[in-house]
Write a structure and sequence with these properties.
binds magnesium ion, 8 strands, binds adenosine-5'-triphosphate, eight-stranded mixed sheet, alpha/beta
């Protein structure tokens, strides 16, 4: 299974992606976490130390080093994962596609985006789950271009702007032919928030993650909420999301008798 995580800036994509990966790994799945944000910080939400996150080299650098262009064959994603991935807690393998570091003459508009598309598109999910934390907004969803068999997780917090972007992201994912689109109503403070979000994103599968001071606290400390307080309401809700995604992805048991 491949899961593309999208939504407005600051809606909680990295928080949800990080805890989701840790839960999936703890349930025994092999997990690859792809940081598709050109300002990568998924590692923090996964529980990787800040210094190691900062030292991570993105895949894009490998491509620039060899003068790779879009006309060249895509490099072997397994090799890139081996060379550029780092081990995150729980056995999750983390890799960043691009990072804005300094001015460059190479193509900024498609640098990290094209790398995310190629890597997310070509990495095998035969025996593992790939979770891609995308750059904010709908643009990167179009770049990543998830397909019919992938899952799109649209993360929204209750603000009108965030909900509107979630509504459009869902439409885009539908147009891309994605069969399974799940909306995460993050930072929900109560039934009223949830009702508003569910109504705006009419008909979508919606799961709730509550507003949780423990998540903010972890963020201030630069720690993963999963490590700081695995029993906090948001982390527990993301665990339920992980189970839900895996359960629905499992093949139907064949009829017996
Ligand atoms: N359920 C929650 N309860 C409380 N705070 C939350 C919750 N989810 C996210 N936050 C806080 O919201 C902020 C944004 O979260 P996060 O970095 O995950 O968003 P993002 O969508 O990845 O942002 P960006 O678009 O910048 O990558 C962080 O300070 C985080 O701690
Ligand atoms: Mg983020």
């Amino acid at each position: 299974m491949k899961i593309a995580v999208t939504g407005k800036g600051g809606s909680g994509k990295s928080t949800v992606s990080g805890a989701l990966c840790r839960h999936l790994a703890s349930q025994g799945h092999r997990v690859v976490a792809v940081d598709g944000d050109p300002n990568p910080n998924l590692g923090i939400s996964l529980g990787v130390e800040r210094e190691r996150v900062e030292a991570m080299e993105p895949i894009l650098n490998a491509l620039i080093a060899v003068g790779h262009t879009h006309d060249d064959p895509t490099p072997d994603p397994e090799d890139l994962l081996r060379r550029y991935g780092v081990d995150a807690p729980g056995g999750v393998r983390l890799v960043a596609t691009g990072k804005i570091e300094r001015p460059t003459d190479s193509c900024l508009c498609c640098g990290s985006h094209m790398t995310t598309r190629q890597f997310f598109g070509e990495l095998s999910d035969d025996d593992r789950i790939v979770v891609a934390d995308l750059e904010a907004g709908i643009n990167d969803l179009l770049w990543a271009r998830p397909g019919a068999n992938d899952v799109v997780l649209v993360v929204a917090e209750p603000s009108a702007k965030s909900v509107e972007i979630a509504r459009r992201a869902r439409e885009v994912a539908t147009d891309l032919g994605v069969a399974r689109i799940v909306v995460v109503a993050n930072r929900c403070a109560g039934d009223e928030d949830l009702a508003r979000m569910t109504e705006a994103i009419d008909g979508a599968e919606v799961l709730t993650v509550p507003e949780d001071p423990a998540v903010d606290h972890a963020d201030h400390l630069g720690r993963a909420p999963y490590d700081l307080d695995p029993t906090s309401p948001a982390v527990v809700a993301i665990g339920a999301l992980a189970e839900h995604l895996v359960r629905r992805a499992a093949p139907e048991p064949s009829p017996t008798g």
